[in-house]
Amino acid sequence: MPDGRLEDAGWSDRAYEVADLCEHISVWGPDDAASDLLAETCDATAAERVQLVSARRLFRLFWLDLLMPGRPASRRNPAGTLERQAARVLDSLG
Predict the structure, then answer these.
(1) Which of 44, 56, 82, 92 could form a cystine bridge with 48, CB 3.0-4.6 A?
(2) Closest by alpha carbon to 19, among 31, 27, 30, 11?
(3) Can you spell out the DSSP letters for 7-73?
(4) Whole-model pTM?
């Protein structure tokens, strides 16, 4: 769209969209309980649950990249955000 609305609108799948919502930096809380609850209650199929785990890892890496020094999100977030996201990435990799 020329005016920028619906910038990422398009066909997608539920697991990808739920992962995007769960891992978006704006929904962080003191822990991941709310995001985990959303992921657990989205009525996903067995295949979607497997895909959801992978997609959440991907979005954690995506946010880590955006938070790196000199990247767009690094200037707009509180001190310590990069470190917290790095810990989230490591946690998701086991």
Answers:
(1) 44
(2) 27
(3) TT-S---HHHHHHHHHH-GGG--SSSHHHHHHHHTS---HHHHHHHHHHHHHHHHHHHHHHSTTSGG
(4) 0.81
